[in-house]
Every structure is written in structure tokens, then in C-alpha cells.
Amino acid sequence: MILALDVGTSSVRAVLYDALGRAVEGAESRTVYQMRATPDGGVEMDPDELFEITCRNVDELLRQAGELGRQICGVGGCTFWHSMLGVGEDGKAATPIYNWSDTRSAPDAAALAERLGVEWVHSRTGAVPHTSYYPAKLLWLRRTDPALYARVARWMSFGEYLYLRVFGRTLCSVSMASGTGLFNPNTCGWDGEMLKALDIDPSRLSPLPERDEPLVGLRDEYAQRWPALREVPWLPMTGDGACSNIGSGCVTQDLVAINVGTSGAMRVCWPADRVRIPRGLWCYRADRRYLLLGGALSNGGDVYAWCQRTLRLEAGEVEAQLAAMEADGHGLTVLPFFSGERSTGWAGYARAAVVGMSLSTQPIDILRAGLEAVAYRFAAIYDLLRGEKLGGNRIIASGGGILNSPTWTQIMADVIGLPVVASAVPEASSRGAALLVLQALGHITDLGAVPAPFGEVYEPDLANHERYQQGRGRQQRLYELLIAPGPDAI
User: Fold this and answer.
1) What span, in angstroms and rounded, lies between the C-alpha atoms of 116 and 64?
2) For the packed helices 315-323 and 363-387, what is the interaxial angle rounded to 10 degrees?
3) What domains does the chain contain, in order, with CATH numbers?
4) Cis previous bond, 361, omega within 30
5) What is the SS3 assignment for 333?
6) What is the mean pLDDT of residues 433-448?
7) The whole model's pTM is what?
């Protein structure tokens, strides 16, 4: 048995898996939470609060597992990429968790791009100067609160902090490091030139493991709390996006995965030592063997949630109303950048816009247009992937944000013009984390050795696809008018 943790931006899950990557029925715990948003663009959470939530989920999972808990041979997990916190010399959190969607560092990202050059940063780290990544956040904190910055002994992700608390030491997985903007995915190490440019000593970052190096031997407090896990190896936590690809079975060059939760991403994951990093896409790692190339959207399922909440749409009626509407039949053009833009233009300062409303516009029109707008952004990422000769003739979709709405899944197929296959894996990210542990412990030969189940296939309507090309064109023109020239032009 494998215990897999999934610490996401809105919930924590603990799930038990068997040696074939199947979730054990009745052995799952979940807690929903919400990060704190501030009017100036901040998105934060108390690291110790999230730590306690995570520990309580382990408690509950072990209670549900009962005697099966004695068969747990490894623990792994995934957590949100890019988010950062600072820890003091005493090992205690000195800062909040600054989430990837925190945009307060936008001026610092712009200054970094001007000083170092976007292409130089991108070619070295697979990331661009952007509010999502560590460099801009570090520069922002150094500029706005130098006393707090000086109190930090080490910068890390929440997964590293979790392990620091339960083991008294920590490791940063290659996967989590690859999402910082301080790591070179082609050399699999912290990028010395980038650290030098930011005046950051490598000792202020967590050490990277050699191969699949686990941590073993819980601190006394947690060994007593979880006796079944006392001497069980824990693999350093992995980026949630990488685990989503792995868990949904997308680990070859011809399979494209999309995941829509609170945010969204489209990725190709395959074994490769090196890759040319194309403009507009990011490059991260699942581990030292598997690369990921793709794009991410700061807004995905939260566009649906915002519309439903703010426009007061009746939950039980929305899906039927959406399904009855024509493709691009509302007369609206939407930029869905409620939390800024990541792929493909990386305009962290961007904000949402709805254009074309009239007296006849209804709340359901705005929701439908918002869902189509998100699909247009995915289509732009797909175009870049196809330009690199990646991706085949179908897309695998996972995440409750999209799979809970068959209409939105159909919109995605129609916009991109390819079949979209619904993943039948209930929790792709936690399953991917479990498979990584099974591989590290030698129970499976590679990540593709355990096939993932698939569900319904959504075939594209080619007539709708043609109509959506017009909608994509309108969105691009609006983007160029409001966003692309830069924040001073808005």
C-alpha cells in the first residue's frame, strides 16, 4: 500500500493506493480550505495552519485504513508548484505561504525581465520573469519588507516545510525545484547564473536529492502519532501538475493532458534528458528522467465558480442551460484573467474583461462566454505544442473543474478540434504521486507500466470548431488592445 498526499490550492487529500495504482475504497480523507486574498493582489496562507490540516488528513486516512495501514510501504505526495515560504534559523515559518496566484510582485517581474532579458531567463530555467515564480517574489519581498526578508534562513515550498516539521530535515525534489524559476531543467540543478543574478546563496534553498532518495525516520512526536509510518520511506513531494499527467496515464510524447481545477494546465510528459524550450511554454520536470513541456492558466475552474457565485446562477439548472446554447452565440468576448495571465503571454498584470454586453445579455451568457474563453487559451497552448511536434490526435482531460461539466468538456473538444477523452481516474494527482513512489521503491518498472482507465470520449463538432475560430480571433484582438502592449497602455 502507498499513502499519497495531495496538497492543492483549495483542498488537502490523503488517499491509499494499492500496488497497481488503484485507490482503496473507503480509505480517503479530504479537507477543503481557502487561501486569503488581499485587495492588492496578495494570496496567502498560514503554513502552520496548512500543516495541521495535512496532518489531520493523515490521521483520518490511517483511521479509515485500519489494519491495511500496516501494509503501507511508502508515502509520497504532490503540492502546488511555484508557491513559496520562508523559514527562520529556528526551523519555524517566518512568512506566510505566498501562492503562485499572488501578483504583488508584478513590478519586480517586469524589472527583472528588463534587467536580465526574458529569453535569457527562459532558456536557462524553463520559466519567464513572472509573478508566479520565486525570483519576482524574492525581489518584491526584499524591496517591500527587507527586515522580514533578512529573517529568512531558507526559502522552500510547502512540501519541504511539511517534511521539515515531521522529519527535522528536508529535501526539495527535482520536480518542485523545476517550478521555482531558479532551476535548470536540462542540467537538473539549481541554476548558478540565475542565483548569482539574484544574489541568492544556494544554502538558502533546500538540498536536491540524488535520484529517488527518500526520507526515513519520523521525529518522535510524529512516530508516536503515526506508528504505521514510523520507518516507512517518504519520497520528497512532487509538483501537482507532473503528478496529474502521470496519474492520468499521459507519459508519452503523443499524449496531451489538460487538467482544470481552480486553475488549468496543458502538458506533455515524456522521458528526456534535454529539450529545447520554445517561447510561450514552460519546461519543468516530474523527476530526473521525465520532462514536462506545456502551459498553465491562472484561471480555470475558478471562472466557472466566480460566475456561478457572483451572477447567482442556480446550480441545478446551469448545465442544462449551457448545453442548450449555440457555440459563440452570445455576442460576448471575454479575457478570463481574474488572477492575471500565465501562458502564453505571461502578463501577470492582466485582469478579466467582458466586452459586448447589451440589454439582452443574461448571466448564463457570461458564464458560457467565460468557459469558451478559457478553452481559447488552452487552444493557444496546444498550437505551440503542435509546433514542437508534440501531442497526437486526442487529449486526456482530468480535474473536477472540467469533468463536472460535460458541456465544458465538449466546448474544449470543439474549440481545439480534437477528441477529448475524460480520464476515469478519480484523483489523477494523488495517483501520480503513488506511482512515483512505486517506481522509486522498485515495485513498477516505469511510470507507464500501470495503464490508466479512460472514460467518455467527446468528439469535436467541426461546424462549432469553425465558429470558435471567429471567437478566438475576437479574443486575440481584444488581448492585443488591452493586454499585449503592456500595463501602461490599459
Assistant:
1) 52
2) 60
3) 2-241 (3.30.420.40), 301-421+460-489 (3.30.420.40)
4) no
5) strand
6) 93
7) 0.90
